Each structure stands twice: as structure tokens, then as C-alpha cells.
TrEMBL record:
Transmembrane segments: none annotated. GO terms for biological process: translation. InterPro entries: Ribosomal_bL19 (IPR001857), Ribosomal_bL19_CS (IPR018257), Ribosomal_bL19_sf (IPR038657), Translation_prot_SH3-like_sf (IPR008991). The keyword Ribosomal protein applies. It comes from the Bacteria. This is Large ribosomal subunit protein bL19. One of its GO terms (cellular component) is cytosolic large ribosomal subunit. Belongs to the bacterial ribosomal protein bL19 family. Keywords: Ribonucleoprotein, Ribosomal protein.
Length: 115
């Protein structure tokens, strides 16, 4: 393990839930406005996840005022306060970029049911 990897291991968060593409997430993001800080919740479907150690990212897509909004979050960023898994989606792909072309009910993802 080289020096860069060793330094990165110090910043890796331990309290990250298990999630994958297709899951509906609620991401608590720290927003700084002037000298005040607040937490804003960004809820949507995870359409991709890239695992690269401290540089891991995930993309969350939501519909806001009829427009699709995607946001890429760094998994171990100090700006991401907490990640909650709202529902687990039943998908057959690792990247759900095809959701960008779907509208309305066609863009729904079935929820995984456990018996």
C-alpha cells in the first residue's frame, strides 16, 4: 500500500449503509450559507455507484418540478452527513442511465420484497 492510499484510509467513513443502484436514498447534505450551516435532505434513486476507496462516488436522481435532477456525491465527503436507505429496488443492472429517457410511471422501479 502506497502513501496516498494510507492517507486516504484515515478519511474513510465507517457508518455507510449497504446500498446499490436502484435503491431509493435519503442523503443528508451539509449546506453552508455564509457563516451558518444547515442540513438539506436530497431524496432520489441511486442510478450508479463507483467504488474507488476514498474516491468512491454515487449518483442520485430525483424529479424536481418536472425536471430530472442528478447529483453526484462523494461517499466519504465531509459534506455528506448521513445516508438513509428508504427502499431497496429490484433491478438487473449496475448503472441505471436508461432512467434519463423514461417519464412518469415508466420510470418506476419495483421494490424488492422479502418473504
Amino acid at each position: 500500500m502506497n502513501v496516498v492510499d494510507r492517507l486516504g484510509m484515515e478519511h474513510i467513513k465507517k457508518n455507510i449503509p449497504v446500498f446499490k443502484a436502484g435503491d431509493t436514498l435519503r442523503v443528508h447534505v451539509k449546506i453552508t450559507e455564509g457563516d451558518k450551516q444547515r442540513i438539506q435532505i436530497y431524496q432520489g434513486v441511486c442510478i450508479s455507484r463507483m467504488n474507488r476507496g476514498v474516491g468512491s462516488t454515487f449518483t442520485v436522481r430525483k424529479i424536481s418540478d418536472g425536471f430530472g435532477v442528478e447529483r453526484v456525491f462523494s461517499l466519504h465527503s465531509p459534506a455528506v452527513d448521513k445516508i438513509e436507505v428508504v427502499s431497496i429496488g429490484r433491478v438487473r443492472r449496475a448503472k441505471l442511465y436508461y432512467l434519463r429517457n423514461l417519464r412518469g410511471k415508466a420510470a418506476r422501479i419495483r421494490e424488492k420484497r422479502y418473504s
